[in-house]
Amino acid sequence: MTKRRLSERQLERIRAIQARRRSHLETRPDAVSEDIELIGEPEIGRVVVRYGANLAVEDATGQLVHCLVRRNIGQPVCGDHVVWQRISDAQGVVTALLPRTTVLSRPDFNDQPKALAVNLSQLIVLIAPEPEPSTYLIDQYLVAAELIGVEAMLVGNKMDLLDAPARRAFERRFAHYAAIGYRTFWTTLHDSTTLTTLIAALAEHTSVLVGQSGVGKSSLVKILLPDLAIQIGQLSAATGLGRHTTSATTCYRLPANGRLIDSPGVRSFRLGAISRDELQQGFREFQPHLGRCKFANCHHNHEPNCAIRDAVNAGLIAPERLSNFQHLRTAHLPRSHSDATH
């Protein structure tokens, strides 16, 4: 009995020490001074996770190194390619950021874009029968993918919750996405054969999973990453933050030579302020009809001779897509653009 009470006290003490350590690390300066001694030659690495002032950087051999950031080089985020150099105690200092190919961002509290993850090549939108999918949120993700120039795909997860007729009806609700070129997968985590084509689609890509809470993202990640516990352990060892590291956007290695970025921030994703032209470009099926409206700044709402509405009437554009476009136009365009009159 005494031994059990002692064990519980020890656990509490360990938790308290870890909490103090995290607090200390979070309040440390987010950069290191110029006069710190660097060892060896500069190396190129990839930021796997950032938590406060601490980064785990993967070197050319796949090893993870705990790094801090040199002053005045910008804010590295998950997926960044960086130049870094080793210092004492098997740690490193990031000295430069390399150019980014793509940036997935969302507005911060001041409505300024904040990068969530960079250097992506694919964005995977996860939906499920429960909770009720939001096409408005789906279309925000797809607009973001179009604007940053990455491929997007739709994955319907937990399909085993539906009987055959309900499943067919559910798939029909989202058939317009496949019709305009978005690859669509229907999966259940209890049947690995339904994941085969999705796993193949992730190979050789850096993909980010996005979706509402409750769609099974964590469970899917565990299946896609059979060595997830090992990778988390390596991150914990590199950062010294324990499992707390997993609350940050993290880039994991997939078995088929790809990368999977898991980010808690994309569950509450929203677009920032964008122009009308940018928003239109985000709806790929609008492209053949743009420039054919009577008015050059047509809102595709009630204006006469609107090519987009004509395309909806002809079955070339899904009505819900136009509805979501209108909602996004009102919510995210600067007022001077969204309030223009005809």
How would you characterize the largest beta sheet?
6 strands, mixed
Distance between the termini: 80 Å
Spatial strand arrangement across the major sheet:
10-9-8-11-13-12
Helix content: 25-40%
The H/E string reads: HEEEEEEEEHEHHEHEHHEEHHHH
What does this 3D model show about the protein?
By secondary structure, this protein is an alpha/beta fold. The protein is 33% helix and 24% strand. It contains 11 helices and 13 strands. The chain has helices at 2-27, 135-148, 164-173, 175-179, 196-202, 217-224, 228-239, 276-281, 307-313, 319-332, 335-338; strands spanning 39-51, 54-58, 64-69, 81-87, 91-97, 103-107, 113-118, 122-127, 151-156, 183-186, 206-211, 250-254, 258-262. It has a 6-stranded mixed sheet, with helices on both faces. Strands 1-2-3-5-4 form a 5-stranded mixed barrel. Strand 1 (39-51) and strand 2 form a beta hairpin. Helix 2 (135-148) packs across helix 10 (319-332). It is globular. Mean pLDDT is 85; it is low at 1-5, 21-30 and 335-342.
Short description:
The protein has eleven helices and 13 strands. The protein is an alpha/beta fold.
Using brief descriptors, characterize the structure shown.
globular; disordered N terminus; single chain; 11 helices; 5-stranded mixed barrel; alpha/beta; 33% helix; 342 residues
What's the structural blueprint in terms of helices and strands?
Elements (H helix, E strand, L loop, with lengths): L1 H26 L11 E13 L2 E5 L5 E6 L11 E7 L3 E7 L5 E5 L5 E6 L3 E6 L7 H14 L2 E6 L7 H10 L1 H5 L3 E4 L9 H7 L3 E6 L5 H8 L3 H12 L10 E5 L3 E5 L13 H6 L25 H7 L5 H14 L2 H4 L4
Parallel strand pairs: 3-5, 8-9, 8-11, 9-10, 11-13
Antiparallel strand pairs: 1-2, 1-4, 2-3, 4-5, 6-7, 12-13
